[in-house]
Design brief:
It is a single chain. The relative contact order is 0.16. The chain contains ten helices and 22 strands. It is α+β, with helices and mostly antiparallel strands. The structure holds flavin-adenine dinucleotide. The site of flavin-adenine dinucleotide (FAD) has 43 residues, from α1, α5, β16 and α10.
Length: about 500
């Protein structure tokens, strides 16, 4: 639109927005934007139009699978341009979903309503950390501004590591739903996508697990990285899908005061300081080992979606006042780690599942997780006792060599030893590794055309967000949903 190649745009910031309703055919917003280009220090400031869907063209019927950030922001941007949609969500709304989370903490899992599935997606009862590696500052600011509009604290727009907390996120999501419903978006909860109805190579609708058919011209597949049934359907239906690298490992938990001492030194007891954060990486045997999703003052949570698999993740409340600090410590995986090409495109999911089931067996059931003290893991000896933990279903002392593949264990050991050698105090008697952290990102990518963002296999199918392999985190998934909405709106021009 501005004559700037898309690939050279690093960031876009909206400076001003006004509604132009002078002509019915071209009603829409006029924006003034600042565009920052790669290798150029001076931004370009220019006017652009953000039109509403033209009244002269029938609105497409859009079904969005998944109410996570990717699906919700696709719905939001479409609704803002006058295109309503239907959101199919396998899980429950935020309030009843809360009871299912309490259930899994006591060892009872609802496979459709849990820490990964339900209104708002995997991020709802997460930590609500909102920082991202995404370079497009304008897009990031746009998502943060939306969150503030729906009730998130305004300091997220100024903090370098913005954080909402899982006690506040559900309220924000309820406000988002109210806004979307007022603009014509329909939510169908406890409605599980089971396949697409297609004719002549085009999307015509979706089928649910209960046999209902919903007509659609466009389907946005924003179902997250744990929707293994959707990947199975895509592979069987001939939708273009490929293996993608991912990462697996453990959650490492320390008493928070230990991390405060490492990071703040003598100031560690200063109550004005927030619970300390860390970010670490090292080279393991022959691959990278790194921390992510660090939760100061947080909890390790059971993020399983299958009845015989243990998966751990982390979250925190807005006050971050639990006595524990946890972070994922994971080993980078390449697509070839999942096995021979003959093992198929979903081999990465089988790889994750084998680890999750080994962890379930080793933990002794009821989502108890296998765990080992860090000092014992590095000394290659079993733990005879375990320290206190924030993980409610409980932990069982197990040598993690019995749970994780040997090459993952070797890299974790080398990487953690290197990190412990650098950070005095990190190798603490009370530090514990809890397995298994397997759902770091999707081990597959649902292919899309780089220009239209549509699946090359099926016209009208738009893979979106983390599950499709185009995002990693709340903000980047919301940005990808925005991109998908823009691609759909471009059809009306
Ligand atoms: C415990 C936890 C803590 C996390 N903490 C953070 C954090 O602090 N910061 C951060 O940036 N990221 C965090 N993440 C990751 C973040 O939540 C995800 O990156 C993000 O939610 C991905 O967004 P998405 O919209 O692509 O997919 P998701 O959020 O996974 O949403 C997908 C939705 O699709 C639905 N769905 C799946 N299959 C079907 C089907 N067949 N039919 C209908 N609906 C379906 C699911 O129920 C889900 O609601 C955390 C994740 C977890 C589990």
């Amino acid at each position: 639109m501005l004559g700037i190649p898309l690939s050279s745009i690093r960031a876009v910031r909206v400076l001003r927005r006004s509604l132009d309703a002078r002509k019915a055919q071209t009603i829409g917003y006029r924006l003034r934007v600042e565009v920052i280009r790669d290798g150029e220090s001076d931004p370009v400031v220019a006017p652009v139009a953000a039109p509403m869907w033209p009244q002269s063209i029938p609105c497409p019927r859009v079904v969005i699978v998944g109410s996570g950030p990717a699906g919700s922001w696709a719905a939001l941007r479409l609704a803002e341009a006058g295109v309503p949609s239907t959101i199919l969500e396998r899980g429950k709304p935020v309030q009843p979903r809360r009871h299912d989370l309490a259930g899994v903490q006591r060892g009872r899992l609802d496979v459709d309503s849990n820490y990964c599935f339900g209104e708002g997606g995997a991020g709802t009862y997460s930590d609500g950390k909102l920082y991202t590696r995404t370079k497009d500052r304008g897009a990031v600011d746009g998502v943060l501004a939306d969150l503030v509009r729906f009730g998130a604290p305004s300091d997220i727009t100024v903090e370098s590591r913005p954080h909402v907390g899982s006690n506040r996120l559900p309220k924000v999501l309820s406000e988002l739903r109210t806004c979307l419903e007022s603009r014509g978006v329909t939510y169908k909860f406890s409605s599980v996508f089971a396949g697409i109805v297609a004719r002549d190579g085009r999307v015509r609708g979706v089928r649910t697990r209960d046999g209902e058919e919903v007509s659609a011209d466009i389907v946005v597949l924003a179902c997250g990285h744990s929707a293994r049934d959707v990947y199975r359907w895509a592979a069987d239906a001939g939708v273009a899908i490929e293996r993608k690298g991912s990462a697996v490992g453990v959650r490492l938990e320390h008493p928070q005061p230990v991390i405060n001492r490492i990071q703040y030194g003598k100031a560690a007891t200063d109550e004005r300081l927030p619970p300390a954060f860390y970010e670490v990486s090292a080279m393991g045997a022959d691959r990278g080992v790194y921390s992510f999703c660090m939760c100061p003052g947080g909890f390790i949570v059971p993020a399983a979606t299958e009845s015989e698999g243990v998966v751990v993740n982390g979250m925190s409340l807005s006050r971050r006042d639990s006595p524990f600090a946890n972070a994922a410590i994971v080993v980078a995986l390449r697509p070839e780690d999942f096995g021979e090409p003959s093992h198929g495109v979903l081999a990465g999911i089988d790889f994750q599942r084998r680890i999750e089931q080994a962890a379930f067996g080793a933990g002794g059931g009821s989502f108890r997780a296998p765990a080992q003290r860090l000092v014992d893991f590095l000394a290659r000896r079993p733990s005879t006792s375990l320290p206190a933990t924030s993980y409610h279903p409980g932990v069982m002392a197990v040598a993690l060599d019995e749970v994780l593949p040997p090459f993952v264990v070797a890299s974790l050991r080398d990487g953690l030893a290197a990190i412990a050698a650098r950070l005095r105090g990190f190798l603490h008697e009370e530090a514990m590794l809890v397995a298994a952290e397997t759902r770091t990102s999707a081990p597959v990518r649902i292919v899309r055309d780089p220009a239209t963002l549509e699946s090359p296999s099926l016209a009208g199918l738009y893979p979106a967000g983390e599950g499709a392999g185009y995002a990693g985190g709340i903000v980047s998934a919301a940005i990808d949903g925005t991109r998908i909405a823009q691609a759909i709106l471009a059809r009306g021009r």
